[in-house]
Amino acid sequence: MTHFTNYSDKELIVLITQKGEIDAFGTLYDRYIKVIFNKVMLTFGHRQDSEDITHDIFLKIFLRLKTYRGNAAFSSWVYSITNHHIIDVIRSAKNKSRYDHETDMASLTEEPADEQMLMIDSSKLMQIMEQLDEEDRMILILKYKDQMSMKGIMNVFNIKESTAKMRVSRAKKKAYQLYKEQYKNIEV
Amino acid sequence: MRKKRNPFKEIHQDVEPPEELKKRIIHDIKMHQLIADSAELFTVKFGKTLGDLFLNRSKKDTNNKNDQV
């Protein structure tokens, strides 16, 4: 499969979709696997689940290759499929605890400012992220790590602006609350 | 100007995906392609071949009848 390494993403897509060179997909896999797998790992934490989810993401990418029009960078298109798939998995796994979760959040303190969120120590942040549920974790990753706009978050989750704002606010509150609880010596 | 610090950029998983994952994905894609090709063969191509066969046959029959008249 190494003979495809000099091809651009777009050339590989032509080879796969028009000439049926499925092995060329292996090169696309090599280019994106690490980012996708680690994003899935960051969101879900569990290795076996992350492998299965990554597997499904790559199948989805393959099945949709013919629909890629080349308007956006291929990497953006790939990450968009990744984000949407992660959201689908989170939604399908979402259980009855939703109402409890919303109620819990109502009792939390006011929403921390972005500056406060960015003051969290990165070594502690990882531990806090691990305690959040997948949806909150994904929202914070999209907002702060990928620096996605509110519009982008609305699109990925397919929700209204008010809902997106509420979910971002909830995820921020929860993360910051955990930070305060576990590292009490910090100033609030 | 000093760049603003973002702890979220600093957190990441650096886990190597297993080698078997690639094999599994490529294998499943090839299986999918094989099934899609087979389905196409039996629905579109086979259907077209049958259609052509019957169409040619009925044309041939009509020509034969015309020749007899």
Sheet/helix structural class of chain A: mainly alpha
Number of strands of chain B: 0
Q: Oligomeric status of the shown chains?
A: heterodimer
The tally of beta strands of chain A, per DSSP, is 0
The number of distinct helices of chain B, counting runs of at least 4 residues, comes to 2
Euclidean distance between termini CA atoms of chain B: 98 Å
Q: What is the rounded Rg of chain B?
A: 30 Å
Shape category of chain B: rod-shaped
**Unreliable parts of chain A:** 96-100
Rg of chain A: 19 Å
**Helix/strand order of chain B:** HH
Alpha-carbon distance between the two ends of chain A: 54 Å
**Tell me, what's the shape of chain A?**
elongated
Mean pLDDT value of chain A: 88
**SSE order of chain A, one letter for each helix or strand:** HHHHHHHHHH
Low-confidence stretches of chain B: none
Structural class of chain B: mainly alpha
Describe the structure.
Chain A is mainly α. Chain A is 72% helix and 0% strand. Chain A has helices at residues 9-19, 24-44, 47-64, 74-93, 98-106, 114-118, 122-131, 134-145, 150-157, 161-182. Residues 96-100 of chain A have low confidence and may be disordered. Helices cover 78% and strands 0% of the residues of chain B. The mean pLDDT of chain B is 81. Chain B has helices at residues 7-10, 19-68. The chains are: A mainly alpha (188), B mainly alpha (69). The interface between A and B is medium-sized, with 32 and 25 residues.
Brief overview, please?
Chain A is mostly helical and 188 residues long.
Features:
heterodimer; A: 188 residues; mainly alpha; 10 helices; 0% strand; B: 69 residues; 2 helices; 78% helix; rod-shaped
Strand-helix topology:
The complex is a heterodimer of chains A (188) and B (69).
Chain A: H1 9-19, H2 24-44, H3 47-64, H4 74-93, H5 98-106, H6 114-118, H7 122-131, H8 134-145, H9 150-157, H10 161-182
Chain B: H1 7-10, H2 19-68
